[in-house]
Amino acid sequence: MEPKKNPKADLTRNSGLYFAIGLALVMFLAWQGLEWKNYEKDEAFNYKMDVDEELEEEIPITEMLKTPPPPPPPPAAPEIIEVVEDEEEVEETVIESTETSQDEVIEVEDVVEVEEPVDVDVPFAVIEDVPVFPGCENAKDKRACFQEMMLKHIRKNFRYPEVAQEMGIQGRVSVMFTIDKDGSITNVRMRGPDKNLEKEAQRIISKLPKMTPGKQRGRPVRVPFSIPITFKLQ
């Protein structure tokens, strides 16, 4: 049996397209209606600005009046001169000369030279009499004996800080100190890669014994000395 409805005459075939076009048209008209604005003529804003030109004021030219110089100061009053009668005798002041003639002989007492005490720092390398480390009193070369005893003292008292070992810190600490005029150790200074190593170097130097002070021209003087202490992990 053949269908009575012609498939070409289907009215719902393009209904979706027509619906979309109609919806878009309605939204466009609604948007135009919302955006429509109407301004009254009375409320129009005037963009013109009237600027009045300012007239230049004439500045009167005034002449500078020259002030007269101040009057000169009055002359000083003359000194009062006392009049002395001829009958009175005026004593004259006699000025004796302090210069001596060639014939006169001046006796000069013997001048005693006073030597000022030597109060300077003399380096260990140039001092005449080096400080004597205990045990080097009878050594022929006291300078070499001093350095050897210093190394022995460092080896004997050396102790690697545990904190530095755990952290793997090593390096060289430069130690500087002064052997004072009484043989004591003063002015100890350190410079190294770590504070723990510097403290250990200071502890070693603090254990140095009292020494015989160095002498320059036969007088005790302060002698600065420096030595490196190397901390190396095995």
TrEMBL record:
<dbReference type="GO" id="GO:0098797">
    <property type="term" value="C:plasma membrane protein complex"/>
</dbReference>
<dbReference type="InterPro" id="IPR006260">
    <property type="entry name" value="TonB/TolA_C"/>
</dbReference>
<keyword id="KW-1133">Transmembrane helix</keyword>
<comment type="similarity">
    <text>Belongs to the TonB family.</text>
</comment>
<keyword id="KW-0812">Transmembrane</keyword>
<dbReference type="InterPro" id="IPR003538">
    <property type="entry name" value="TonB"/>
</dbReference>
<keyword id="KW-0653">Protein transport</keyword>
<feature type="transmembrane region" description="Helical">
    <location>
        <begin position="16"/>
        <end position="34"/>
    </location>
</feature>
<dbReference type="GO" id="GO:0030288">
    <property type="term" value="C:outer membrane-bounded periplasmic space"/>
</dbReference>
<keyword id="KW-0997">Cell inner membrane</keyword>
<keyword id="KW-1003">Cell membrane</keyword>
<protein>
    <submittedName>
        <fullName>Energy transducer TonB</fullName>
    </submittedName>
</protein>
<dbReference type="GO" id="GO:0015031">
    <property type="term" value="P:protein transport"/>
</dbReference>
<dbReference type="GO" id="GO:0055085">
    <property type="term" value="P:transmembrane transport"/>
</dbReference>
<keyword id="KW-0472">Membrane</keyword>
<keyword id="KW-0813">Transport</keyword>
<dbReference type="GO" id="GO:0015891">
    <property type="term" value="P:siderophore transport"/>
</dbReference>
<dbReference type="InterPro" id="IPR037682">
    <property type="entry name" value="TonB_C"/>
</dbReference>
<dbReference type="InterPro" id="IPR051045">
    <property type="entry name" value="TonB-dependent_transducer"/>
</dbReference>
<feature type="domain" description="TonB C-terminal">
    <location>
        <begin position="145"/>
        <end position="234"/>
    </location>
</feature>
<dbReference type="GO" id="GO:0031992">
    <property type="term" value="F:energy transducer activity"/>
</dbReference>
<dbReference type="Pfam" id="PF03544">
    <property type="entry name" value="TonB_C"/>
</dbReference>
